[in-house]
Amino acid sequence: MGAYLDRIDAAPASERWRLVRGLMYGEPQPFFAELRAERPVLELPDLTIVTRFADCALTLRRHQDFGVDLYRPKQGDYFMAQDDTADHWRDKSIMRAILDFEQVPRMRAHVGDTARDILREAGGAIDAPKRLTRAVPISLVKTFFGFDDADDEQLFDWSYWNQQDAFHNQFFDAIVTPDPQKIVRERERANTELALFTARVMAKRSVAVKLGFGGDDSISRLIHLSFSGGVNFPLKKVLFNAGGLLIGAVETTSHAVNNALAELLKRPDVLDRARAAAASPDAQAFDGFVFEALRFNPAFPYFFRTCHRRTVMSAGTPEARAVEPNATVLAVTHSAMFDEAAFEEPDRFDEARSQADAFTFGQGLHECLGRVIAQAMIPEVVRQCLLLPNLRAEGPVRFEGGVPESFPLRWG
């Protein structure tokens, strides 16, 4: 048996998850390789961890068998906290429609202009999360989603605490979260403020829509749809889903941009090719560098689900194990993206690699709602950084609460 598994088996049961989590973040590739080869279904006292591509894909795609139960206490009736329901299908379809993907080229141009202006004003040095990687998606939210009257700090605050509670404040996060209840209180406070603000925006937009002056931002489109009566989408749903647009846009974008930048900056050979591609007139020729970097350094190394039906993982292999109902499953997609059964030469950085089976934006029913927008926004922010002369990291990415809080960059 491998050295990592020997350490885990020798540890007291109560300490195994702490040890495993440390290895997942501290020594991911050798640790995951050992798990995939020897124990792809790792059973801990309160968690079942799966690491092979087939098992991770099964967990995320079979929403009848593996649900998002742990989202519900955090997100209530929001459609992303539901699985195969009428609200989920209708609301997600509406939200995808009103995002108007035909606007993506305009959005990318806006992101590029905003990032370039911020970097120009920075004068050769910047702390990326504090001044760039959150500011750019906030600008996009204000310009395209209908939050133009909001204060930037408020938008960040409302998004941040919702993301913290949903994704970094589950029961298995208690070993690294000093005050879980504080996060819950902050999320509740943020949601109250966000609801009051969004209600004021909706009132203003509703008058404009009734007078025939409604804009083409996302909130106005939702109000148009609600007033039409053509579908079951009352104003309460407009309020709820408009807030979801903000919450999903800011912190995840910031996290992905910082991780991708950090990965590229530590690979000198890749960095030279990436800089050349960044300078190409075809901006999308650069994007593969960012998504391959996120395969090596993803913002979310795992997704969590609750088992609803007894399911055999790694079926047909000597490592097969059954997962029983009510078990919490971590699909470690960081590991899955290095499984040779799904990715050819996974240890090689290949910017031309197909990302169709990657888990960067999730998979299955709960794939990222704004995937197409994120696929333009994230690489464009990174591209603007790599266009700077002699860009370099002055230190590592510093994480707090599971997200990047500091990443000092310098150039020129």
Instruction: Please give the alpha-carbon distance between the first and last residues.
Output: 50 Å
Q: How many DSSP-defined strands?
A: 12
Looking at this structure, what is the CATH superfamily of the domain at 72-293 and 372-410?
Answer: Cytochrome P450
Write the element-wise H/E pattern from the N-terminal end onward: HHHEEHEHHHEHHHHHHHHEEEEHHEEEE
CATH topology of the domain at 72-293 and 372-410: Cytochrome p450
Describe this structure in words.
This protein is of the alpha+beta class and 412 residues long. The protein has a domain at 72-293 and 372-410: Cytochrome P450 (Cytochrome p450), CATH 1.10.630.10. Helices cover 54% and strands 9% of the residues. The chain has helices at 3-10, 16-26, 28-38, 53-61, 72-75, 86-98, 104-122, 128-133, 135-145, 152-168, 180-210, 218-228, 235-265, 268-278, 287-296, 333-336, 371-386, and strands at 41-43, 48-50, 66-67, 125-127, 303-307, 311-313, 321-323, 328-331, 392-393, 398-400, 403-406, 408-410. The protein has a 5-stranded mixed β-sheet with strand order 1-2-8-5-3, covered by helices on one side. The model has no long low-confidence stretch (mean pLDDT 95).
